[in-house]
Structure formats: C-alpha cells, structure tokens
Amino acid sequence: MSVEPAAAGDVDRLLAPRGTRTGRRRSAGLVLAIGFLALLVLVAVAATWIAPYVPSAQDLDDRLSGPTPEHLLGTDYLGRDVLSRLLHGARPALIGAVVAVVVSCALGVPWGLLAGYYGGWADSALMRLADTVLVFPSLVFAIAITGSIGAGIVTSMAAFGLAISPSIARLVRAGVIGELHKDYVQITRMYGCSAGSRLVRHILPNSLEPLAVQVTIYAGIAVLAQAGLDFLGLGVQIPEPSWGADLSQAFTYILVDPAATLAPGITIMLTVLAIYRVGDAIRDRL
C-alpha cells in the first residue's frame, strides 16, 4: 500500500504547538470582536447616511416579507425596512451602554474609594447602603426608578447604572484596601501629601486594573438591560428604532413570521459577545 506524502501545510499544522494554535484562534476572535465593535460605532454615527430607507417609513402592502433585493433583511409588521431599523438601533444601544457605565463608575468609584480608605464607621455605613441597593435585582431596580421618573433611554440606563454602582464600589473598595498599607502609600504620608491627593494620584490608579475588566462585563450587561427595558417599553419609545423594541414587536408576530425575531436577537447577541471578548483580552493583558 502506498502512502501519499502529507502537504507542507498539514505538517506545519500538526507540528505546531497546541498553545500556538489556540493563541492564533484567540487572536483571530479578538480581531473579529474589535472589528465588529468598530463597525457598530461607525454604523451608529453614519446610520442616517448608510441606511437604505427611513426607519419609520411604512409600506402596509409589503408587511412581514422575507429578504428581497429591495429589503435585504425583510420588513416588519408595518412594512418598515428591518435593516434600516437595525442600523439606526445601534445608536441607542451604544448610548445606553455608555450612560450606564458612566453613571455606575461616577457613583461607584468615589463610593468605594471613601469606604476603603477611611474604614471604620464610614466603611460600615457605605457598605450597608450598598447591600441595601444590591438586595434588589438590577433590572427590577431600574424598572422601579424608570417607572417613577419616566421612560426614556437616558433615565432608564442611568437607573440601571445606579443599580450596578454598589458592585463597582465593592470592587474599588477591595482594591483600595489591598493598596492601603503598601510602602508607596506610607511614603506619601511621610511627604505630607493630602488624603485627596493620595487617593486620586496614587491609590486609585493602582486599584483600577480589576475595574477595567469589570467595566466590559457591565457594558455587555448594559446592552442586554437596555434591550430588555426597550422590550418592556421603558427605554426608547416607539416608533423610534431600537433593538429591544423591534424584538418586542417581532415577538408579537412570532407565529406568523418566526424569523422576524432573528435579526434584532442575533445583533444583540453578537454585540454582547464582542464586548465580552474584548474584556477577556483586557483581563489576559492585565
């Protein structure tokens, strides 16, 4: 029996260390994730110019149609172009995630800094306040506040940012406590640095590595929360395009057109996975 010689590429693939092949796949995944997020930002900025149709334009004679050359992803129950609504929906999705992350960090970072640095009764009081907020599920807390203040993307995502800020505070507090008794902190005391300067210029930068990873996790959760609040009608208001609201409307007609939920659902899933992949890369780098 004759055995054909293996191709050179096959030999290289077989002889390559397993870790090398895994590393290449991870690098490729990271490149794809960054590329997808960059494309998403570009789409959010340029949706007005690149969308083939006005997202609110209706064609009642062409409702719930499948993909066609005129409508690449089909139309919804009002005959609106699904692709155009997806492109315009990227903007509120990113804005909502940014609002939630900014609010959570703006509240949680000083909260954790003060609790970790001063300790004692201040730490106990601030952490008991954090426990009180954390008793409620984040989304339920956001729904309660949004229902009281009023629906809207900024109010709903600011409420969600408030709900997750105690988790940020706990993370920062743990980092501050870990840094508090190191030599460089004692040296700043010897040189007479004020407590504010010591916190902001020395302790805070050295406590933020875990926070950088956690922020990407919360950004992905914020995208899901924003879609969920839109689904419930507490975020972007109809008829403005948003992934969550479009998913909610498509779900109503799932028996008539089961594929209608795929476009917004898959888009939300890919966005969250891309954010998490970037978070994994940050964690590995740190």
UniProtKB/TrEMBL annotation:
<keyword id="KW-1133">Transmembrane helix</keyword>
<keyword id="KW-0472">Membrane</keyword>
<comment type="similarity">
    <text>Belongs to the binding-protein-dependent transport system permease family.</text>
</comment>
<feature type="transmembrane region" description="Helical">
    <location>
        <begin position="250"/>
        <end position="276"/>
    </location>
</feature>
<feature type="domain" description="ABC transmembrane type-1">
    <location>
        <begin position="90"/>
        <end position="279"/>
    </location>
</feature>
<dbReference type="Pfam" id="PF00528">
    <property type="entry name" value="BPD_transp_1"/>
</dbReference>
<dbReference type="InterPro" id="IPR035906">
    <property type="entry name" value="MetI-like_sf"/>
</dbReference>
<dbReference type="InterPro" id="IPR000515">
    <property type="entry name" value="MetI-like"/>
</dbReference>
<keyword id="KW-0813">Transport</keyword>
<dbReference type="InterPro" id="IPR050366">
    <property type="entry name" value="BP-dependent_transpt_permease"/>
</dbReference>
<feature type="transmembrane region" description="Helical">
    <location>
        <begin position="93"/>
        <end position="114"/>
    </location>
</feature>
<dbReference type="Pfam" id="PF12911">
    <property type="entry name" value="OppC_N"/>
</dbReference>
<protein>
    <submittedName>
        <fullName>ABC transporter permease</fullName>
    </submittedName>
</protein>
<keyword id="KW-0812">Transmembrane</keyword>
<keyword id="KW-1003">Cell membrane</keyword>
<feature type="transmembrane region" description="Helical">
    <location>
        <begin position="28"/>
        <end position="51"/>
    </location>
</feature>
<feature type="transmembrane region" description="Helical">
    <location>
        <begin position="126"/>
        <end position="145"/>
    </location>
</feature>
<dbReference type="InterPro" id="IPR025966">
    <property type="entry name" value="OppC_N"/>
</dbReference>
